[in-house]
Amino acid sequence: MDFKRFRLIYKLITKNKKLSEKRHPMFERNRFMKIFSYGMIAFMACYLIFFGLMFANLFADGSKEACDMLNQGIIIFLILDFFIRFGMQETPAQEVKPYKVMPIPINTLMHIFLIKRGWNWYNVFFMFFFIPFGIISIATTPYFGVSGLIGYILGVWLLFILNAYWYLLWRTSVNHHFVYILAPIIIYIALIFFGMFTGDWLFDGSMKFMRGFIEWNPLCFLTVIAAIVILYVVNLWLQKKLIYFEIAKVEKVKKVKSQEMSFLNRYGVIGEYLKLEIKSIVRNNVVRKIFISGVIITLIFCAVTAFTPAYDSGFMRVFICIYCFAVYGIMTLTNVMGVEGNYIDGLMSRKESVLSLLKAKYYFYCFMLLIPTLFMIAPVATGKYTVYELLGCLFFTPGCIFPFLFILAIFNNTTMNLTQKIQQRTTNSKAQFFVSLGAMLIPMVVMYVLVMLMGSIWGGVVMMVLGLTGVALHHVWLKAIYKQFMIRRYENMSSFRATRNA
User: Fold this and answer.
1) What proportions of the chain, in percent to the nearest 5, are helix, strand and coil?
2) Over 90: is that where the pLDDT of 157 sits?
3) What is the pLDDT, as a whole number, of residue 188?
């Protein structure tokens, strides 16, 4: 294919991507969140500029050049960039599906999407940190100057492009099999441990390699470019291989063994909905990955709190204690009724079926609190928390935080797509944003004030009383939420249908 036609298709795909976002039913509703997101991006950019200037002045009086001291830890920036990308980007195999029926070669489409990944604006976002840092620590020095700054910025940009293709290779593998999620964790932990704690080769190698960019050493540039080309070719081969899995042409269908779970039959309709909640986690990729992510996050925070002094300060103690119990509920209940939007018409055909569903969800998430309770035994055993604080958070979460989150059942009207492997578009609304923010901040403030005023024992007791009161009244507030849901049922059902196949 000639370059002119390739460029034309590239522009067409870029235009179609923008149009698909504007034509999505949630585009108008998410205007507030889009404005807020742009504001957060601007805030983060200012934050990076501030840190760039701060680090340049902080390292100015060191025994080495400021740029050399920062370059020793360049791997930290690449690791941070790698994990921030998670969940934000689709793989080319997913993006190419709408164009598969068009008379465009798959090879051309894959090249276009891979090139777009390299030219993505996100690859230059960290330049808000490196450019201010480089201006002070490199451009103003007589032996580096402006040419050294340009070489440094160009080299950093190439490293982030390399990181983008490495992330894409891993993300594609995770879509194929979830076990690959452990690969970067193992690699980075081993790299940091053996490169920093058992020797200085990672520090020294990073410093010398980045100094090569400043001095325009062609070997450094060619090494990174060669690595980019290798990852590009590997990604191209892997994406072409997996495209047919994405469009379901060679996807294998496994026979699902249905579990009766007869022990739930005694609870009638609520028991049937409890079975549905359990089967959603077991069978569906989207719901299962949210569950696994919540468990992993809780386990990591509990381990760090128990065996390190990282979160020993007053407010951070409170934050971790509340967060470990509430994180899974916040991750899932902010989209409450989103999964049910796929079969909302069937739910509405029976009287009070939604009320039974809400009760089943509440009981299920109360039962799931046993997981963080088990994990929090380690921090309690090491003396980081008292038993009263643990029990206070355990009962405060279902009694005071969950009612706050269940209010979103009234306002959520976007169907969660259960066939895609990652969330492709945000479905946040004003209600979701403010409720999830309040569900995290208000309990932290309440617990912090109670512990400061009454101590850990009586503060935990008061939280237990508040939580048990909310649990005892769960029939009342669930009924009130159900009534408000029924008032908005036609508006919600219409939106659920509109976003079901969007």
Assistant:
1) 80, 0, 20
2) yes
3) 80
Write the pLDDT tens digit of every residue in 66-87. 888 888 888 888 888 887 876 5
Q: Is residue 251 part of a domain?
A: no
- Is residue 97, in this structure, part of any structural domain at all? yes
Is the pLDDT confidence value at 425 over 60? no
**95-to-14, 117, 238 alpha-carbon distances in Å:** 11, 12, 14
Beta-carbon-side half-sphere exposure of residue 467 (alpha carbons within 13 Å): 25
Looking up tokens 């080495």 gives 64
Q: How far is CA 49 from CA 134, 155, 181, 222, 487, in A?
A: 11, 19, 32, 29, 49
Residue type, 447: M
Q: Which of 98, 84, 13, 83 is nearest to 44 (CA)?
A: 84
pLDDT tens digits, one per residue of 230-287? 999 998 888 877 776 655 544 444 555 556 677 777 778 888 888 888 888 877 777 8
Spatial separation of the C-alpha atoms in residues 342 and 280, rounded to whole Å: 13
Say if residues 271 and 264 touch (Cβ distance below 8 Å).
yes
DSSP 256-297: PPPP--GGGGGGHHHHHHHHHHHHHHHH-HHHHHHHHHHHHH
- Residue 254 in any domain: the answer is no
Q: Are residues 272 and 212 in the same domain?
A: no
394 within some domain: yes
One domain for residues 233 and 382: no
The CA distance from 38 to 30, in Å, is 12
Mean pLDDT for the chain overall: 81
* Number of structural domains the chain divides into: 2
Same domain, 314 and 232: no
Is residue 202 located within the same domain as residue 304?
A: no
- Residues 286, 205, single domain; the answer is no
- In this structure, the answer to whether residues 293 and 152 fall within a common structural domain is no
| Polymer length in residues for the chain | 502
pLDDT band at 91 (very low <50, low <70, confident <90, very high): low
Could you tell me if 112 and 180 lie in one domain? yes
Name the token pair of 6.
């390739």
Last residue of a domain, one of 221, 246, 271: 246
Judge if 355 and 224 occupy the same domain: no
- Packing angle between helix 474-487 and helix 489-498, nearest 10 degrees? 70
Residue 161 sits in which domain range?
A: 3-246
